[in-house]
Amino acid sequence: MAASLLPTFASAALYQQKCFACHQAGGAGIPNVFPPLAGSEWVNGPAENLIRIQLRGLMGPITVKGKKYAQVMPPNATMTDKEIATILTYVRSNFGNKADAITADMVKKYRGEVGKPMLTVKDLIDPEKAKAAKKEAKPKKKEEPKKK
Ligand code: HEC
User: Does some domain include residue 48?
Assistant: First the structure.
């Protein structure tokens, strides 16, 4: 499962340092200003979206849990691959979220995007569509061995 093998202590401290100011305790966000991470379809959706948001930032309108936000999130590209993986895994397995862990190798794949213009929602994979596609593919997927 998604349970992180990384020390929760370090993850929580990173969240506190890098995300808390905007996304708040428990990933609740602030209505109309900072979208929630708790229960967000984006957080529980494709890993690629989350990694790229950290590397390039995100601006303009995005709908999260049925509410529209039109703000700017600056990139967090000064964090290492490991730190980004740790923080995203933490967010995806806390605040009531349940999504797979993100590894440093996954983050590394997108490093080349650093410095490109900020993302807008059009650059992201629609999490609802990804979910629908996953559901169709599900029955088989469960059995896949998870080895490195
Ligand atoms: C300076 C404030 C700020 C900080 C710090 C910040 N964010 Fe954001 N974040 C935002 C804003 C504002 C948006 C919405 C941007 C928009 O309107 O397009 C957002 C959107 C998001 C989204 C997509 C929408 C959602 O709510 O699911 C994710 C995921 C996210 N942030 C994760 C993080 C993580 C993880 C961190 C810490 C590493 C972080 N953010 C740090 C302000 C911030």
Answer: yes
